[in-house]
Structure formats: structure tokens, C-alpha cells
Amino acid sequence: MNEYIARYEQHKYEGYSTIDSLLFTLSTLKQNREDWINRNKLKYFGIGLRFDKNPFFQPKVTQKNIAIIGTVIEKLNALKVSPDYQHEGETATTRLEMFRILGEQFGELSKNGETQQLFNHVIKEEGSIDFSMRESTLITPSPVDILTENGEPYVDEQTWALPSIQAMIESKGIPVNLFDPSETDLTLEHDLQDHVQWAYSRIYQYAYPSSYDDTLIARFHHGIQHVTRAANYARVFANLYRKYGDEEAQHLTENDIKLIQIALLFHDSAREGDNEDLWDHESAILLYWYLTRILHVDSQTAKWVAEATANKDPSPEKGYFELNEDEDGQLSWQFSQFEEGFFPPKNIYQKIIHDCDCLDIIRARNQYDANYLDFYKDIASQNELALEEMAELIIEARGLIHHQGDSYITKDEARKLEYEHEEVHARIQTDMQSGAYPILQALHERLLSVEELQTLTLVDLTPFDDTAPMTGKNLAAALREGRILARGITTPSALPKPKANKPILPDETLAEKEIRKSMRAEGINTKSRKEPPNPKDKNPLRSTSILGYGSGVYPAAGLLIFNPNLKQVRRVSTEDFDSGRGQKAHLAHLQEKEYSESREMLGQELTDLHHKMKLGLFGKKNQQGSNYVEILYDIDRYDAIFYTNDPTIGNSIAYDDFNPAHRFSPLLQAVYLQKQYERQYEATRAAYRERYGEEGEALFLQRFGSDPRLPIHEYSGLNNSLVPCDAALLTKENIVHMWVDMCSDFMRDSLLHLDEDTSYYVHDSFFYSLNVEDIKVCSMYKIKVNTLAQKNQPADLSYDEPLRKQVSDAIEKARENIVAEYEHSLLEKLANNQESALSTTGFLVLQYSPHLREQAADKIKADLLDFVHSGELDACQLASISLPDVPISTLDIPHCNAKARNAFCKSKLIKAFILCQQSGLDNEAQLIRNKLGEWAKQLLEDNDLSKSGLNERLKLRQLMMLMDPENPLLPAVNASVKEIIGQLTTHYASNKSYLQSSYQLIKTLDGAGFPRSQYQDEFRVVFDKMSEALPALRPSDWLYYAKVIKLLKEEPHPVINRWLAEYEDKIYNAEDLLGTFKNLNFTLSDENLELFNLLVQKLHFNAEPRRYVQLPYWFRVIKRLEALTENHQFSESQLKILNDRLGEIAATLIEEGQQMSPFYSYYSKEQKGYLQLISYAKEINTILKANSLPVPDSLINEFHAACNALDQFDLNQIQFAKAEIYLVKAVHSQLPGQEERAHVLEKMTDFMNTKAQAEKEAPGARTASGL
């Protein structure tokens, strides 16, 4: 998605109207284009460095686009102030006028440019709310082509002739006798199940004609499951329309419902692919033929139903597509223009067909939008009860779709296959009647009378009572009213990753850290490097999400906050806005008093957000799993713990699967959190008593309550439920049972996959190599490593020692039983020749189970003798054996690394040799050794001295060292390896790429375990070559050079000293170079201060050969440089050199700022002065954050001057940003001369507060969520 489409979508999420979102986006786009022209104009005329010039600078094209954007902005503003828009706001009519404004300029824009893409996106996406914007195989041109003036508008009575029905059927890949009436005796009166069976057997069981999907499901996204589910929604919507007074709906009969359901069965029948539907009108024709030829429905009724299907989304051309059949049975579509200036009203058939299909689109979206539903437009948008019932229906549909394996976040093909048959209707009805979907169950079976509907309670709207306990209806009310926040902790028992300059306690897990921070108060629970530690209170700016209305959560478990305090809310967003983890220093300004939004504004933002959640508008539109909102909240206590078995994005990030590792994993994570909270509760209680004396107990209880054990709740966004977990069920006995069940399932599954290649895994997950603690981790989190933390740990760490031991002992006992059961089963398979001793599974188990080897000794010998003497050994080829790129020292499988184990298992020869040795078959083992000798003779005779020849020799050498180290040909093989190395290094020394090639060769030799002592002399010629060309060595070459230096055991200091002295260029992108120096144990001290100074001067302040200063980069480089110093700390003399260098860089930065002023010549002098101030503040802030060098006086003076210059400006001419002002104030407070600047900062603050108040009080002011 291009940048401006993303901006537009963001404005929409923030609550702005379509026209305002577009105006904001176009204004930004226009400004950026003008900036681009001004920047490149200077380069085009020779101002700036040669490599800065833009060879594609085309000012005329860009200026034309700017003019077009300006025209569009002008017309959109005119539309916004028009009487129609002012009176009615955004309607289908005003939106269509907006599309026409975009469309008439569309063809004048640069083709496929960002602006044209934005226009196209708005027309198609927003147009789809009210109209059909899709292309059609039958009706041309498309609505988008007409709006963008790439096609002529439809005219009244325009007709499109259609291909014959036979030709259409043949193009779909379905039986040609589809509508042969002799094949069936179906009538309209038959049960819907019969119509579903017909549709499946004759249409939906057949794949699309050009389908290449690797799936057993014929039509994965638009098959029988989708259309049958949509058909089952028909009565539900009909009853809702009837309940809220739709007269057409109140006159519907069961016969009408049957016709609507059949229409829904056919609405995707003519599809030829799963992407955009181009076949709406063709599907309507197949429906018409089914009704008239198979069911013998009268043609007028069939025409009515088919037209309702084709017109479920009306045309933006303000007309209606009619289906006509002539006397010869030839069909055609005809466009009927409605009265001038009006849209034809949708009938109830169109509305229900549209809404049923639209509701089921949840299966293909991370974010749903009920704005598209006709029921919402006509009724729920104006009726609060209808809105709540619609919201509940959306939730139930999402849960039903997930239950059937069809959800967007996790498509479960195995589950979907359970609905891929003729009886799918009965299966879906059974699901709807299960009790999990109250509205669907209440409304889907029959048409209810208006009286029945009026007395039927579909949702309980009992208000939340903050004085009542959080149970039962009050808990449900809190969930419905958005009064519950969730703070998730992914893999709570994992250790956090170490951070630079922030040592962490090795025993403080992610959960411990989170809970401790939430209980901070005036030095209590504060861990800091500083003495005394900074006073910290609460855990500010933490990411939380609101539960309810189907909103998901980030991970599988976490903590809950009931009835949160609005004063502690810092930011509101309909989606995860990537605020990051950790301290969130970039959002610290949100805590400033003058930055904080008013309670009224935040309250309105939360209200707006809550409304959007009812419509399904939460989460990121296209990011799988991000189905939740984000609230930044200052956490000072927790009230409960949650877990969920729903799929979550946290699971996916932790171990690449949205689903929990096991059904008990989330609950046991919650138990871990509960017990960890108890520990921290008691520790904090003691700290309060120590800190506050007698009143400490009262203060503690006032904040944290009297119960150290937080209740656990199960949450499901898919079912929109928060259910307290019965504490009586969480006994120690049951906790042990859950651990055993979870670990047992993991162990059984692992044993079923012993033959899986794990050599590419980042950790060794082979079952027999895991201890009990590993099994605990893998059964809960799937893997031992953690991308979000340092490493995963067992989630029983918070248990008392007796319970931990009980859990471990029970798992060990289960392990013994499962292994014994599995090995007994394998023994039977070996005995019955269902498994071979040389299969991967059989071989591996035999290696880890000596007693099984004894029991299967006869079978093992038989398999070995067969392999050796049947000719299979003779057919083995050296080329078929692959060895890992790591040295191998043993054939003892239990003591091999994962790569070696997997490599051995792929070679029948190696497996046979190992088993021969273990079985005492010395003669057969010798025959296998003889095979190695044959290969050695072949290689030595072949005399292939290429790189591939070397690889084959190295592989053979490894095999001989492992299997036949006394082989008389081994010395000859070694000699041939050395000969090839000598030839290759000589060749490399005369080649430009000698350095990198040498590096790769050394890696190959190391990986093959070839002793360095046998080949290091051969690389002397390469080292000598490098010494001759040392000044020309590039910094990027040092990675390879270092490998050779270490191989030859050369002293690195003289080489580095010489290179630094003779290398003439600046050093760019220096972080890798300094890392290489560190690996060579190169040290900088006061004894080589001149060298240090030389290196500092050569380290450029930009990662690329450009003249502008990148201070953050430079300080990162300096941090790497410090790692080369004694004790990893700069001396006073070194700091003096760095300080002087920073002063020089500051002078360059100031000069650069002054030289760049022409780039901003199109800004007002006020805005230009403000930007200069912000620029200096950012640079100074970088220096202050580095906390290693003082800010140069020159920069302080420039900041001071820029700040005071604003005192002379009209602040109304400046576009201030709150975050930038916060930055200026933060920098100001840490620099000298504060008194001389204070009045300017106070003036800016007062100006911004006054302006914000005026904007709030302006008529029609609208806040934007997240701003």
C-alpha cells in the first residue's frame, strides 16, 4: 500500500469523515510534492553534491499533478460547504459526487502514480459501501471506468447480449447437463437441504477451471460452506428487519425466505476464481435457470429473485439491471435508469441477500466494517438496541466461522473439510443450535411474528454497577461497556533480553518485571543503575486493549484492569499503533500535564472507539491476528488475570502459530501469573510497612486490596465472553494433571515425528535429547528460544518447591510410560517387518534405547546383512552422502549435535556401520570400510583439483576419520586436500576476489574439521598479497582479512596500525569494522593515543559518503569504539579527543543547517525559524541521550538563539506539534541559560493551550482517536 493510501486509511480509523480524510491526505500529498520540487530544483541547477542530483527530475509533470490536486481540494471543499452536504452529511449521493470529482481528474494524473492509486483506492473502497464497484465479465464498462472517464456512462435501456447458457456452463468447468430437468424432481417446496445437495453435487464440488490450489477443497473461499452459511443467515436478517418495522420484511413468507436462500446458494455459482467477483451477473443467470428449468418457478418470480441477486449492490449510475428472456430463451441484461438524480430503492430481497453475503465476509477480513450492512444504514445506525443486537450478531458470526475452520486468522482445512459435502446444511444448523450463538439460534429457524420479536430479549443491556462485584451480569455489563482493559504478557515465564547499559537480574522473568513495575511507588520495587535510584511510580504508558465486542488480545495470557480510571488513559487507538515495548521514551510527552488531553476529549475518543468496536472496526485492516485496539494506560494495579484459547498474534510471534501450543498452555500461563502476583504482593506489602511504618499497611491495602490471589478468567473474543475460572478447580492436584496432560501430548506428538529433519531449527528439539524442564517449556511454548525474550523457561517457576517437584516427578513418570509404550509398539513393528532398523525412526530409537537393541537384535542383524550383501551397499555413492558444515568428532548419536544426527540419519551406509559396530558384525563393518577405500582410490585417480573435488575429498576424509581412521589411504587423501588448497590459494592471490574466496575456503575447511595446522602455511601467499595492497583494503574487506590473520596467528595490532595510517578515505558504515577489530582482540589505550585520534578522525559522521551529519549513527559507532578500549571505558585523554571531534562535527552541522536554508525558502520565516529550533533540539537530544560527551557550546548557543528568535515571531504563522514542543522543553531543562529562554517556552505553551481550547469550542469540532 502506498504511503498516502495508508495515511488516508489512518485518518478514517481516527474517526474523520471520508471527505475530511481525503482532504487531509491530499493536503499532505500536495505539500510533499511542492517540497520535492523545491529540493530538487536546487540540485537540478547545480546546488548540492553531484550524487545528490536527481536524474529523473521532471518538474513539469509534478507541477501538473500539484495543480490537479489543488483543483480537487478546491472542489471537495466546495462540496463540503454545499447545502446538501451541510444538511445531510455523507450520503450515497454526496459520496458519489466526491467520486466524480476524483474521476474527472483521474486520467490527467501520472499513470499508476501515487496520486492516481489513491484516487482509485478511494473510489473503489468507499464506493463499495453504497454501490457495486466491481468489474463484470458481462457488463462493460465497469463503474470505476465510468467514474474515471475511461468508459461511457450507461444509458437507459442499454442492453448487453449474453452468450448461450451452454457456452457459459462449459466455461465454468461444471457438468454440461446442469439444468437437465430429467435429472431431478426438485421443487421449491423441498427442504433447503435438498437444494444445498443439488448445488454441491452439480456446482460446488468442482474446482474452478483454472484452479491450481493445493487443497482438497474445490472452492476454498467461495464454496458450499460459505454459500450455505450465508443462506442460513437469511431468516436471521429477515427477523431483525421485521422487528424494527420494515414493512416489506413484515410481509415476507417462508416461500420468500426459501427463494432468498436459494439466491444465496447461487450468488457465487458462476465464479471462476476466488479473488474479486467478476461473475455476479452470470451467477444470477444460473440462478434464473435453476428456478425456471429445475424448480419450475414462474419466470416473473425467477426474474425478480435473479435481479435482486445481481443488484444486491446498486449501480453508481443510478439504475437497475433487468434480466429479460425472449421467446427463444435468449437472455439479456438491460439497464433501466431511475428518476433523474435519485437511486432506485433496494427491496427487502436485495437487502437480505446483500447483508447475508456481507456478514460472511468476516471470514476473509481481519477487520470487519458493519457500515456496509444495509441493516446498519437503515436501522442500527439510528437505534441503539438494534445496534447492540447487530453487534452481537457480528460476534456470533465471527465465532461460528472460526468454529467451522474458516476464519481469517487461522484457516483450518481439516475442519473445513467437515463442511465440504452434501449434508453441510444440517451440519451448520447443528452448530447454530448448539447454544453458543444465541441470536442465530433464536432467529434462524422460522419467521417470527412482530409480537414475538418485540417480546424477545436478544441482548441483556443491564447497566454496569461499579458498587457490585465483578461477577455474572455485572461482569458482562462491564465487558459490554468497555470497562475492562487487558495487558497481555507473551511467554510470561521467559527471561527478558539484556539491554545495553541496563543489567537485568537473571531470575526476573517477563511476568515478574511487569508485576513489579505495576506496584512501584516512591522507591518501592524500583531497580535502577543509578544511586540513589530514580523515584518511579506505577508502570506508565503501557499498552493495553479493551475487551468486548469480539476484540481479540495480543497474547494467550495476561492481566486485567477493571473499571479503569480515565485520568490514567494516555492514548486511544482502534488498532495496535506499534508503540513498541519497553520504556516508550518516544511517547514520554504523553505524560506531560500540558500535553494530556482533557478528560472530555479522551472520554469522547473512548466513546467513538467503543462505537467502532460494535461495528467490528478494530485492529489493523490487513494484518492477520491484529484484531484488537490499543490503549496507552498508566498502570498502578491489576484486578484479575485472563487467559484465552483463541488464536493470537502473540502466539504467532513467539512460535509461528496463532493457536495455543496446547489447550492447557494459556491456563497454566495464567496460573503462573497468579502465583507470581502472590509473591510480589507479599514482597510489596513488606516494603510498604518498612517504608511508611504504621500507616504502610493501610496505604498498601488501599491500593492493592486485601486478597493476594487475583482471580483467573477465561476470555474469548470469538465468543465475546469473560468467564471466571472456578478457583476450586485449580487445586494442586488439578494443576499437576494439566501439566502431565500437556507434556504427555507433546511427548507423544514428538515421538510421532522423530524422523523430522531438525537440522535447520535454531534449537535442538529432538525428543530424546530433552530433559523434563525442556519438555515443560516445549509443551507450553513449542520452542526453547524466544524472539521476544532471552529464552523461554518453565512456567512452574513461581510454584513453591514441593509443588514444582510434584509436577516434575509426574512428568518424568509419564515420560517413562509413554516411551515404554512407544518402544513396545516399535518393537512389534520391527518384529512384523513393518519398520526397518535402518529407517530413520527405527535407527534413532535404537540409538537411545540399548534395551530395545537387545530385544530386537535378530531383526537388526537381518536388516544389516540384507543391506550389506544384497547389493545395496555396492550401489552406494559418495555423492549421495551429505555432511553438515560443522566438524564431527563422533558417531555416537546421543552425543552428536543436531546437524550431525540429521545428516547421519539420511545415509543408510552410516546408519548400517553404526549398527554393525553395536551388533558385533565386524565383517560387515569392514565391508563398509572397504567401500570408503574404493571411493578413496577413485578420487585419487580422478585427480580433480577443483573446488568440488576438494569438497568430495573433505567429505570422504571426515567419513574415514569417523569410520576407518587407520585406513592406509587416509594420508594420501590428506595430501590431496593440501595440494588443492595450495593451488586454490595461489590462484586466489592473483585474482581480484582473492580475499573473499580465501575467507570462504577457510570456512569450508573449518566446517569439514580439517586441522588448521595442516593448511595455514598455504595461506601465507594470500597474507603476503594483502600486505602488499594493504592501503587499498576496504573496511568491508576486514571481515575476510581477519579470518586469514587469525588462521596464521598473526599479531593484528601492527597490521591495523599500518592500515589506519595508510588508508586515505573516510570510514563509512564503521560498526561492522569495529566489531571485526574487537574479534581480533585489538585494543586502544593511552599508549596508542595517536592511533586512537587517527581512527576517530577517519570515522565519518554518516553511514554513507554524504556530507550531512547523522549524530545517532556517530554515537552508535562511538559506542562500538568504546568496546575496543581498556576495561571498555574511555580514558580522560580519549574523551578529550572525542569531545574535540564532536565540536568539529557540531560546527559542520551548524554550517550545514545554514547552507540548507534555501531548501526551505518556500516556508515563512516564522516556520523556518521553528524548524531550525526543532532541528537543533533533536541533535542536542541525541547527545544528551548518549550520556557520554557534553553538548558543544556552539550547539547550545545556536539552540539558545533559535529559541529566542521565536519571541519576535507571530506564532499564528507556525505549525506547532505538541511532541516537538515537549522535546524542546526537555532539552531546554538540561542546558544552561534556562532563565533567558523560559519566557519564550511559556509563550509557546500558552499559545498552544489557547489554540487547543478554541478548537475544542469551535462548532462541529471532532476529535480523532489516537491523536
TrEMBL record:
Compositional bias (Basic and acidic residues): 510-520, 528-540
Q: By its UniProt entry, which InterPro entries does this protein fall under?
A: SidE_PDE
Q: Any idea where the SidE PDE domain is?
A: 211-407
Q: What is this protein's name?
A: SidE PDE domain-containing protein
TM segment ranges: none
Q: Which SUPFAM superfamilies does the record match to this protein?
A: HD-domain/PDEase-like
Q: Where is this region: Disordered?
A: 489-543
